[in-house]
Task: inverse folding
């Protein structure tokens, strides 16, 4: 990735204790922020993902706080790298994201912020489950190239306004997203970026993702 956005605030590394394990994240809180977006990364990714870091910087430019979070510990990530098992343990990832949400609600600088989730790939399923479990807390969800089918049992319970962003060339995932959106009993929208694949690596694609996500979170968190 060569796309860069100048930092709005200096992110700080934070440690969260969730279900007896310690998770690490990068927290950035711009002045006068009204909302915060927690990132749930996709298969085999981490808080160091350049794509999600780019989106986070863009959201910070819009005045939103961000928490880029590793939902697995270092040992768990090593195990997952060898087995590819934990990345599909969506219930575990959703529990970790929910625990991180509880942490955000207790911190002095974030406790009064409105909460949204940004989920990529399998992380989108974890975000939807965590949102369904906290209908009065989570106001908005954005899914980028997500696998909402992995959260199909909870979709009717999701109350957060949800935006599905998919690449037009990612056809199987596009069909899964359209089907998932039809199951939601809340505000929802599917945005298809023509010519983009699963990772949105094409010219201008990631900027479009950031813009769409920023507009959605501004509408529901600001």
Result:
């Amino acid at each position: 990735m060569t796309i860069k956005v100048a930092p709005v605030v200096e992110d700080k590394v934070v440690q969260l204790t969730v279900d007896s394990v310690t998770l690490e994240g990068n927290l950035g809180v711009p002045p006068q922020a009204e909302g915060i977006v927690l990132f749930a990364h996709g298969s085999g990714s981490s808080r160091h993902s350049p794509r999600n870091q780019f989106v986070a910087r863009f959201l910070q430019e819009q005045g939103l706080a961000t928490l880029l979070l590793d939902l697995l510990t270092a040992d768990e990530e090593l195990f997952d790298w060898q087995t590819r098992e934990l990345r599909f343990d969506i219930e575990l990832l959703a529990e970790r994201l929910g625990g991180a949400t509880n942490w955000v609600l207790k911190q002095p600088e974030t406790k009064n912020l409105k909460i949204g989730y940004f989920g990529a790939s399998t992380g989108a399923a974890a975000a939807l489950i965590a949102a369904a479990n906290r209908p009065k807390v989570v106001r908005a969800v954005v899914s980028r190239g997500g696998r909402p089918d992995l959260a199909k049992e909870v979709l009717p319970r999701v109350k957060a306004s949800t935006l599905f962003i998919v690449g037009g060339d990612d056809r199987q995932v596009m069909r899964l997203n359209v089907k998932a959106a039809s199951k939601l009993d809340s505000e929802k929208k599917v945005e298809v970026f023509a010519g983009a694949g699963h990772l949105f690596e094409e010219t201008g694609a990631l900027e479009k993702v950031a813009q769409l996500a920023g507009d959605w979170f501004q509408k529901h968190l600001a």
In short: Residues 205-221 form the longest helix (17 residues). The chain has one domain: 12-221. The helical segments are 50-61, 74-83, 90-104, 122-133, 171-183, 205-221.
